[in-house]
Amino acid sequence: MSPPLRGALIVVACLSVTGCRDEPKRVSSNAAREVLSSENVQHVPAWARSERLPKRAVAGARLFALSGCTNCHTYLGVGARNVGGRDLSSAGLRHGQRYFERYVAQPGRFGNGVMPPFSALGARKLRQLSVFLASSKGAR
Ligand code: HEC
After folding, report:
1. Distance CA 60, CA 71 (A)
2. Tens of pLDDT along 7-19?
3. How far is the CA of 107 from the centre of ligand 1 (A)?
4. Residue having the nearest C-alpha atom to atom 19 of ligand 1
5. Cα(4)–Cα(113) distance, rounded to whole angstroms?
6. Stretch 65-89: mean pLDDT, rounded?
7. Hey, whose CA ends up nearest to atom 41 of ligand 1?
8. Which residues touch 23 (CB under 8 Å, ≥6 apart)?
9. Which residues of 6-31 are buried (b: 16+ CB within 10 A; e: fewer)?
10. What distance in Å separates the CA atoms of residue 23 and residue 121, rounded to the nearest whole number?
11. Which among 59, 84, 88, 118 is least surrounded, fewest beta carbons within 10 Å?
12. What is the pLDDT of residue 16?
């Protein structure tokens, strides 16, 4: 097959697969996110000290640092506030564990159409995240 024809075929194949042309961009932003997440995890011991987190909240703190939450929320200066997400280091003053379990699984049910649902994390991880959030009552 002649090179120009092959090139044309690749373009057609790409156009017929939705999002094909965005692929390289998505891959690199995921890679960047992973690097950021692993850096975020280094802050967990400082979070635990400043917030006087109980031991059972630490697993959830690590999940929080690693699950993409800090793309839209901050926690004691770590992360970024995007698309209206707020700082969550005092989240436990507003709501309790049960609320967070339901909220993080399905934010849409709480009128939040921006935050993606995290139900795929499963009940155990949602509980760990929620223990962390409910224990987060601000730096003390
Ligand atoms: C794409 C952005 C985005 C991501 C990613 C995201 N959130 Fe959100 N989240 C929001 C927005 C926007 C709101 C609504 C404004 C607010 O309350 O911060 C929100 C609200 C919340 C609330 C309610 C806060 C309150 O006090 O009522 C909780 C809890 C929460 N997010 C936890 C999480 C957790 C945990 C993760 C990661 C598993 C996460 N979010 C990931 C955007 C995001």
Report:
1. 16
2. 444 444 444 444 4
3. 8
4. 85
5. 45
6. 94
7. 69
8. none
9. eeeeeeeeeeeeeeeeeeeeeeeeee
10. 24
11. 84
12. 42
